[in-house]
């Protein structure tokens, strides 16, 4: 499972340091596969934190861990309001239902 969180940085804030710290917290959680932090070449105020997880359950459990709740969620909650969780598409894999999930 792939999670893509995009952020728009205020020029006065040090978003890079905050996202690097969140990435370290997430990487320490069970089910974390890998991740990367990036900044747009075309719009330097636009950042992305992309992580891969063993399953959606692993990602949700990571978000509910104490350290991530305390230090990570305040930063992650500033992500752009757009879908962020994606299933990875492998050759010949059966995909999830082709409709939006309502929570």
From TrEMBL:
Transmembrane segments: none annotated. One of its GO terms (molecular function) is monooxygenase activity. Keywords: Monooxygenase, Oxidoreductase. Pfam families: ABM. Residues 3-67 form the ABM domain. This is Antibiotic biosynthesis monooxygenase. It comes from Nocardioides faecalis.
């Amino acid at each position: 499972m792939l999670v893509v969180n995009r952020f728009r940085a205020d020029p006065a804030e040090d978003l890079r340091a905050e996202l690097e710290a969140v990435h370290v917290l997430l990487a320490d959680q069970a089910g974390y596969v890998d991740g990367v932090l990036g900044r747009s070449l075309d719009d330097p105020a636009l950042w992305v934190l992309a992580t891969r997880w063993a399953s959606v359950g692993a990602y949700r459990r990571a978000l509910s861990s104490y350290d991530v709740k305390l230090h990570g969620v305040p930063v992650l909650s500033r992500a752009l309001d757009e879908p962020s969780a994606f299933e990875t598409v492998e050759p010949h894999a059966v995909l999830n239902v082709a409709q939006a999930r309502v929570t």
